[in-house]
Amino acid sequence: MSVDPATASGYTAHPQRMGFFTDTSVCIGCKACEVACKEWNAVPDDGMTFTGMSYDNTMSLSADTWRHVAFIEQPRPLGHQDPGVEGMDFRWLMASDVCKHCTHAACLDVCPTGSLFRTEFGTVVVQDDICNGCGYCVPACPYGVIGKRETTGVAAKCTLCYDRLGVGQEPACAKSCPTDSIQFGELDELRERAARRLEQMRAAGVDSARLYGHDPDDGVGGTGAFFLLLDEPEVYGLPPDPVVTTRDLPSMWRQAGIAAAVLLAGIAAATWGSRT
Amino acid sequence: MTMNLPGGLGSWPLLRQLVGPDRSGRGAAVRSARTDHLRARTADADRVVKSVCPYCAVGCAQNVYVKDERVVHIEGDPDSPVSRGRLCPKGAATLQLTTGESRLYQALYRPPGAADWQEIDLDTAMDMIADRVIATRRATWEWEQAGKRTARTMGIASLGGATLDNEENYLIKKLLTSLGVVQIENQARVCHSSTVVGLGTSFGRGGATTFLQDLQHSDCVIIQGSNFAEAHPVGFQWVMEAKARGAVIIHVDPRFTRTSALADLHVPIRAGSDVAFLGGIINHVLSNELYFREFVLAYTNAATILREDYRDSEDLDGLFSGFDPDHRHYSSETWQYEGMLTVAASGQRDQAYDSDYDEHVAGGSETHGAIGHSMEGTPRRDDTLTDPRCVLQVLKRHFARYTPELVERACGVPPELFERVCRHLTENSGPERTAEFVYAVGWTQHSDGSQFIRAACILQLLLGNMGRPGGGIQALRGHASIQGSSDIPTLFNLLPGYIPMPHAHRHETLNAFLMADAAHKGYWADMPNYLVSLLKAWWGSSARADNDFRFDWLPRLTGSHSTYDTVMAQLDGFCKGYFLLGENPAVGSANAKMQRLGMANLDWLVVRDFNLIESATWWKDGPEIETGELRTEDIGTEVFFLPAATHTEKSGSFTNTNRMLQWHHQAVEPAGDARSELWFMYHLGRIIREKLAGSTDPMDAPVLYLTWDYPVEGGQAEPVAEAVLAEINGWDEHGDPLPGYAALKADGSTSCGCWIYCGVYKDGVNQAARRKPAEEQNWIAAEWAWAWPDNRRLMYNRASARPDGSPWSERKKLVWWDAAQGRWTGYDVPDFDATKPPDYRPAPDALGTDALSGIDPFIMQADGKGWLFAPAGVVDGPLPVHYEPQDSPVRNPLHPDRQRNPARMLFPHEHNRANPSGDEPGAALYPYVVTTYRLTEHFTSGAMSRTVPYLAELQPEMFCEVSPELAAERGLVHGDWATIVTARNAIEARVLVTRRMPALHLDGKVVHQIGLPFHFGPNGLVTGDAANELSSITLDPNSHIQEVKAFSADIRPGRRPRGPGLTDLVRDQQRRAGVTEHTGMEI
Lengths: 276, 1083
What we know:
The structure holds two protein chains of two kinds.
Chain A: H1 5-8, E1 18-23, H2 32-41, E2 67-74, E3 91-98, H3 106-110, E4 116-118, E5 124-126, H4 137-140, E6 147-148, E7 155-156, H5 162-166, H6 172-176, E8 182-186, H7 187-203, E9 210-212, E10 225-229, H8 249-275
Parallel strand pairs in A: 1-10
Antiparallel strand pairs in A: 1-8, 2-3, 4-5, 6-7, 9-10
Chain B: H1 7-10, H2 13-19, H3 33-36, H4 41-44, E1 47-52, E2 61-67, E3 70-76, H5 89-92, H6 94-99, E4 108-110, E5 118-119, H7 122-140, E6 141-145, E7 148-159, H8 166-178, E8 181-185, H9 187-191, H10 193-203, E9 220-224, H11 228-231, H12 237-244, E10 248-252, H13 258-262, E11 265-267, H14 274-287, H15 293-299, E12 323-324, E13 329-330, E14 341-343, H16 355-362, H17 368-371, E15 374-376, H18 391-399, H19 404-411, H20 415-427, E16 435-439, H21 441-444, H22 449-462, E17 473-475, H23 484-487, E18 494-495, E19 499-500, H24 510-514, H25 527-539, H26 563-571, E20 577-581, H27 585-588, H28 592-599, E21 604-609, H29 614-621, H30 623-627, E22 638-643, E23 652-655, E24 660-664, H31 677-692, H32 701-704, E25 712-713, E26 718-719, H33 721-729, E27 786-787, E28 815-818, E29 823-826, E30 905-906, E31 928-933, H34 949-952, E32 959-962, H35 964-970, E33 977-981, E34 986-993, E35 1000-1002, E36 1005-1007, E37 1009-1013, E38 1034-1035, E39 1047-1053, H36 1061-1073
């Protein structure tokens, strides 16, 4: 069942939920998104390390990388793509990853300070003036998105350019994307657009095309940033079946409460018993 | 402590959480005050300044946000019809490029022999540079050579301009020419000079024939010799648009790149074999009668009859008739049309020099880029196309051996795959459909690069894909204004607007130069108007009819003075002073070692750049210091480093890859000593003129009488760029701006700094600054900026209509004849005399534009036709022939005894040895094919990317790409190091083993290729050996472009030696391969 996270977070009148649809089938791996994001958000560079992992020298999302383009070289043809010669039945997948802005966001659930919060656009943002650097959010994220910045000691991740949204501008990554692989808009509209695109890709013979994160019934209640992928999510370093890590917290608390009550009752009984 | 009630209490998050709707405290209740007051700096900026990206030549529009006189943000301008607001990573990094920590703001000076820099006051530096220019000029002045006036200095050279504004290029060319400097060059030489020759001779103008947005109308896009998606990502959106509309996208490339990843078909090809591939398609089209007959008959020279004594390369085993083996050059006499004389671009013959030889060495081919060649007489035609001497039949015979089997043997492309390319291309050509070719330096940078482009021109003419929507040939250029630095050339062989520089042995007077006695046809006939107006722009009232408008004051050429000749002149000690203006030859030019050794032999060097590039610091930390070949204390070169201003710190125009001039406005003044090139050249000229004031020495007259009174503005006395643009546009005798080049006159009443740019300041309005949003216009977007010629966006568009003036098809209509109005009309500005009807036929004695008929769409050509066969203008043959690169492990399968282009330019030197090739002894020691290229994340020599952290981190080390098979053969380990060796030098690189580098099978032999990005060098945040340490100086004889896209090499695991061991390694390999000064020198 679809949940409107902004309403659930106390916004009575609020704009439509906004998000990203990243169509990796048109990504040219240029990394403009990585740079535009860093420029706008003043994110520092993430180290000058040669990885040898195809053209990916950023490796993963982190406190200092809020958009990350994965490069996957695969010995298999790309559907409608004509492989050319034998031995070149080959494809090079590229995909720009980003914070998913989950409907059920574990990072937000575990944040003890209120630094992580839900915006009126339904996105999840760190308030670095509040964050105390406890780091609970880091392991809570099922995608490994959020990190703690070494230099400042506070958590950092994609804000979906919250400040730009506030003045009616699209996020920097989507703005710069040369081929419109990163599309920004109202989530409902993006989901419809993505469904049409998927249909088109399948009709063109790209059987491996699939959507990822679009389903409101998945383990995180659907994501605000979702993707059209050309292979299994694991291939791109994405969890196949993400679950909000705080899903079991209520039942855990219930169990703990019962246990505590039983314990207290036992102690009381023992104390009362010893007096009698 | 004070309590702030009740408002303060209300802002207490806990209270908000308890009383508000956000009971869980994960949304509205926990917002901080800072979050509530967050505002985008785009909204808070004081002003938004319109600009253009300074990297490649797509010309993406930028919005520059300024707050408190500081640039705080740069992003794409969504109004642009080209970029639609998008930017690639480099464009997105321009804030860091322009405001980051890597920039220097202090002028520096290195005295002769000194171990380090010292700071210097900017004014002092300017004064010292002016003194050195004057002294070197005096010491090296040459009035004549062999009795002919030269009026020049060969002691000073300049390099750079493609990253600069048109106005800056104009001042560089103007001032240095007036000082008698002829060795003026820029990146256009090393990137696309062969484009000017190839496109210019074929169609009449040397620029890309179409514009990026029009790609969306193509039915088939063949990208070959270009890594479009990586090198021009934002332009690539139009390929994606075409693909979304159903177009077939084909990428022909040695590597599977990010372009291939998005293409429908990738065709792996051996680097350097493209003429064989294209020739194969031409043969397929001709032998299967698949050409667009009506188009070919009317619009090309297919029907024209050639001379009887013409001999094809197929008749003479790889040589055309007219070859002179002693000079390695051709006389083009036998290549002419029957009964006609096609006069070489610039004039009368001189008994002392063979005119073809002059043209050959002096880069005359490039002048064809805009003005074509003149002709006398009327060509004889055979409209049945059956005469054995008509061009079409000659073409058929010439390409008959370019069979699918030859394509496989030369290119490694299997016949079945080749057939698929032929099918896609031909099925998508014709009245209803169009196909487009896209290329870049993968075609231009070869020892026969001009012929690569010629081959594509022939093919597109045969298929009728010229002048039509979705057709044409898109030359992707790689610097923000490299088209502009060709148009307003900081090139030795050209004057503005592709007017040739005069030659000492041929052009003694203005009349001789203008060929006053010759009959001219086409727009070439108006050259006197253009040249006299240029001389008036430079020398004002002192240029009069009675003094030949000061034609004498132009220094003269005596041969090739290209940047590579300059390097030789530096090594020989003739060239003593050198300006580097935004160019980094120590990394970016072929044979980087020779570039540095040349500079080490200078008296003085001025480097203007954003930071200390390799060309500024080689004397203290260059590779030759490490090997011991040079010692800092022995190097007598004085070096000045002057920090340059960025595009946000100056106003001016860039000309993009499609001839479109876009104005960028100054956002802020540059800090510290940083200054624009406009400032530098203007004030250098001012100081020199002040120092020379009163001189009666005739050598000083050209600079003293130069019009050099530009208004200045601001605290730094920056020249007003728009005043320079106004001079480029030109004015009439009343000082009113001219509306277009048709208004130019040869009587001295008009002045114009560059005739093809005439109209850019029409009505006193800066047309290049026009920014009518794309959404308010058709896809042509004629009111966004301004393009030459005459704001036409798709050139030769008369060919989009049938000979009778009606569109070939509704689907592909663009420009057509409106009989009722009596004029050409359509979506684009007609590239044709607007009122010349389709049925107009010239009188036999007609001259100039009147000599062209109503069915002659190539109006710059003397015969109005697209040239399938080039009777003049291409010095190494009228038709393309497959030759092997200078260094190649493959024996030429087409002409086994003619391995290399016989007319290539060679520079024998101990540091420029060739590798043995083909079956020659020792060739096995350099068994692999190397190709060099760009990455999306970097820019040219890295000077504008390896210093920018956001870009540097994305590709942080030099690497080589090899196939798994090659890795196994040589024991190369992924992620480890490899050393690559040629007869010039050796470098090391990290190894990327990837299936994206296919091993090719040709002639029963497996050929492995090695990919090397050319961006790395020893300076900056990320470093590595430069690929150009390996390349040789071997040039295309037409354009003098170097061959860096294909050469041979050895590769071995491990790092290269340090110190003298490196030179030992290279020499040892040479010795074992038997390399001598004769290697690779044969005809």
